[in-house]
């Protein structure tokens, strides 16, 4: 299977981003605007209006908004159209992560984090988006019923499910790794009991 070329990846990364975190504008926007077209808004309502009118590739939202809520924004954004925007959530409250993952969020960053980490995560999500779009186009051209069926699968973001990672609270397997705390530690969330914890970092298969 072909992979997206560098120009295709760069084209995906040049698309628009809606940024929803009034408290972090000065910290993150100067770095993001060096490579991306960014629209900054201050509330859930403004963000939803921007998503509907601009059809951005990505929404970056804090979960605790002065007006509205990032989880609701994620859920509503993911209900818009056949190719909804990616959603990357940021929060200083790890206990809220399971709910935003259930709402369909493509990635989560636990505050505090450096601007370059946000920049890198956005780039990774957009490259995955470019690859997913190319693969979907290839599948739609294929005549095989199997490929046509799988062309409608949702391509995961940066969240990874590890069946062998057992919840420290309820004992269920299949924890979601949603953010790397360091090169050795990773944040995990159990979607069965909503427990969030730090554990050893695992590599993707």
User: Rg to the nearest angstrom?
Assistant: 17 Å
The level-1 CATH class of the largest domain: Alpha Beta
Number of strands: 9
Helix/strand order, N-terminal first: HEHEHEHEHEHHEEEE
What CATH calls the topology of the largest domain is: Rossmann fold
Assembly level: single chain
Unreliably modeled segments:
1-13, 146-156
The structural class is alpha/beta
How many domains, in number, for the residues? 2
Number of helical elements: 7
CATH level-four homologous superfamily name of the largest domain: Response regulator
What is the architecture of the largest domain at the second tier of CATH? Answer: 3-Layer(aba) Sandwich
Strand content: 15-25%
User: Considering DSSP H and I runs of 4 or more, what fraction of the residues is helical?
Assistant: 25-40%
Topology:
Layout: H1 6-13, E1 16-20, H2 25-32, E2 37-41, H3 44-54, E3 58-62, H4 70-78, E4 86-91, H5 97-102, E5 107-110, H6 115-141, H7 145-150, E6 160-162, E7 175-180, E8 185-189, E9 196-200
Helix pairs in contact: 1-6, 2-6, 3-4
